[in-house]
Design a protein that fits this description.
102 residues; alpha+beta; three-stranded mixed sheet; 4 helices; elongated
Length: 102
């Protein structure tokens, strides 16, 4: 996400006074707004699309790290957990959820 310090940094007061205009610009441009309070950055505001993209990218990164770790462990000789054990754990977990939902 690109941030232009000349355009994307506004005071909290300006944002409050011109909320509709800022919201419109956020929705169309996808860039964040950095809101300042007493001259210091205090809040970041994102459009919904920008937030969803950032959340998606973070989840992809997290899953990539998990996959890399699994591949490294496999290369070291760790074959993981037996399917029988995994399925047993899943059945127990599903059973607990069913019991608490009742």
């Amino acid at each position: 996400m690109r941030i232009d310090l000349k355009e994307d940094v506004v005071s909290l007061t300006d944002f409050a006074r011109n909320t509709k205009q800022h919201a419109k610009e956020l929705a169309s441009g996808g860039r964040a707004r950095i809101l300042t309070q007493n001259g210091k950055a205090s809040v970041v505001v994102l459009s919904l699309d920008a937030f969803e993209q950032m959340a998606h990218d973070a989840e992809e990164y997290r899953m990539d790290l998990r996959l890399r770790e699994a591949v490294e462990n496999y290369a070291k000789g760790d074959s993981g957990t037996a399917a029988k054990t995994v399925m047993s754990r899943l059945r127990k977990r599903a059973g607990k959820r069913r019991d608490t939902a009742s």
